[in-house]
Design brief:
Elements (H helix, E strand, L loop, with lengths): L2 E4 L7 H15 L5 E6 L8 H12 L5 E6 L9 H8 L7 E2 L2 E5 L8 E7 L1 H7 L8 E6 L13 E7 L2 E2 L3 E2 L13 H14 L1 H4 L6 H10 L6 E9 L2 E8 L1 H16 E4 L3 E7 L7 H4 L1 H4 L5 E11 L10 H7 L4 H6 L1 H4 L4 H11 L2 E4 L2 E4 L2 E6 L3 H6 L3 E2 L18 E4 L6 E4 L11
Parallel strand pairs: 2-3, 2-8, 3-5, 8-11, 13-21, 14-15, 14-20, 15-18, 18-19
Antiparallel strand pairs: 1-12, 4-5, 6-7, 9-10, 11-12, 16-17
Helix pairs in contact: 1-2, 5-7, 5-14
Length: 429
């Protein structure tokens, strides 16, 4: 059973959110149980502070424990101040009231339990032969271990659903993989997404990556439920409470309706203005992913983010080494690059976009330019264009769609697509 409330034309009120949560959580029968809530970090728009407050009001007096795990993937850990901003409360020594707030520490081997292995033959079947290898599934041991030990009685995933460049749509089991997963399954799923290409996979519900994510999550021994959120800009427009897949599916349908912008013709130049929740290009690259399908051959997307001064706080050394290239550049020279974490190589291809590599010549379909705090020399060294952000006035890009110029004032979460593109139709979603 899925308990939900949606509005296509306005935000949900706090009262409506509380009503849905009270009813939905009541169906889960959590009284007396130890509950772990898996939540996103600050790089996703969602009223996590409000949800934290309501969950506390509804559950604290009923459950034995109510703790939180931030699904960081390979993002940097959050300190108490950052956790406090995310939850809109005071966090001291990793605690907010009686709730413990855990970072997923992907870099620490002690974080993980090995839950199982997806056999290579199954991987090949799920990916249409694009990848054939055993995938070891390691996840944060707070959700259970290989012996079926479960520190918590119930896992509650709470986070938004958006069109996504690797999985098709975010949310649901993606909060486990890659959210709290080990390097092996992160690398495998991201590389499959790169092989399919971001432009082909983004905004598609049924994808090889999603199938692998769901299969990996099936190893988790602890009962799991989902609070799926659908945002439109800063507004919460939908909330779905229920089983992992049952609540995620209608959330993707609403997200496709609200967060995919269908345009009549491609744009020659796009200025993607990135909000400050993206603090490096690793996350700020969403300003390219969400616009790539709507950019004409030979066009340009400019990522405008004067506040960004780093390529990646975690993976920058790898990206300085390999640069940004189209998929075929790496595929043709795989022996040279296969030792690099595949998730990093995948990110490189996603940001550089579609293109070809023939006879040693790389031809990207579009130009990707950074108007950030990253200096020209570094941009050029990694294969990206440079534009001095001081010379950019976003308002000069406004209201010029008829010229093939588009200003996206808050880029990163809405997907732009051409109406006549060879792509899954709205009805098929």
């Amino acid at each position: 059973m899925v308990v939900s409330r949606t509005h296509a034309d306005r935000r949900l009120s706090d009262t409506e959110i509380r009503e849905v949560l009270c009813e939905g959580l009541g169906e889960l029968e959590l009284a007396g149980k130890r509950v772990l809530v898996v939540i996103p970090d600050g790089t996703r728009t969602a009223p996590i502070g409000l949800l934290f407050a309501v969950l506390g009001d509804v559950l604290s007096s009923e459950v034995e424990a109510l703790d939180y795990l931030i699904a960081l993937g390979t993002h940097p850990p959050m300190d108490d101040a950052a956790k406090g901003r995310l939850l809109e409360t005071t966090v001291v020594d990793g605690k907010a009231g009686s709730s413990r707030i855990f970072n997923h520490r992907w870099e620490s081997p002690d974080t993980f339990a090995t839950l199982g292995t997806i056999p290579g033959a199954e991987v090949a079947e799920e990916t249409g032969g694009m990848l054939e290898m055993d995938i070891v599934v390691r996840v944060n041991q707070l959700v259970g271990d290989e012996d079926g030990n479960t520190p918590y009685d119930h896992i509650l995933v709470c986070g938004p659903v958006f069109p996504h460049e690797v999985a098709g749509f975010s949310g649901g089991n993606k909060y486990f993989v890659p959210g709290i997963a080990g390097q092996e399954v992160i690398d495998a799923t991201h590389w499959v997404g790169a092989l399919v290409t971001s432009q082909a996979i983004i905004g598609v519900r049924e994808t090889p990556v999603r199938r692998l994510i769901d299969r990996a999550a099936s190893f988790i021994p602890t009962p799991r439920s989902l609070i799926a959120l659908v945002m439109h800009g800063q507004d919460l427009r939908g909330i779905f409470v229920g089983g992992m897949e049952e609540a995620w599916l209608p959330a993707t349908e609403l997200s496709a309706e609200l967060d995919i912008v269908w345009v009549d013709r491609p744009f020659q130049r796009v200025l993607s203005v990135m909000p400050e929740m993206y603090d490096d290009i690793w996350t700020g690259a969403k300003g390219m992913y969400k616009l790539e399908p709507a950019i004409a051959d030979g066009g340009e997307v400019v990522i405008y983010a004067p506040h960004i001064t780093e390529v990646s706080y975690v993976h920058g050394h790898h990206l300085d080494q390999i640069g940004y290239h189209v998929r075929d550049y790496f595929v043709a020279q795989w022996e040279k690059f296969k030792h690099i974490p595949w998730g990093v190589v995948a990110h490189s291809t996603h940001l550089r976009g579609d293109g070809s590599y023939v006879d040693g010549v790389e031809r990207p379909r579009i130009q990707v330019t950074l108007a950030t705090g990253i200096p020209r020399e570094r941009c050029e060294a990694i294969g990206l264009g440079y534009l001095d952000p001081a010379e950019v006035d976003p308002e000069e890009w406004a209201d010029r769609e008829d010229e093939g110029v588009l200003l996206v004032r808050r880029a990163g979460e809405q997907l732009y697509r051409l109406k006549n593109q060879d792509h899954e139709s709205k009805e098929e979603r």
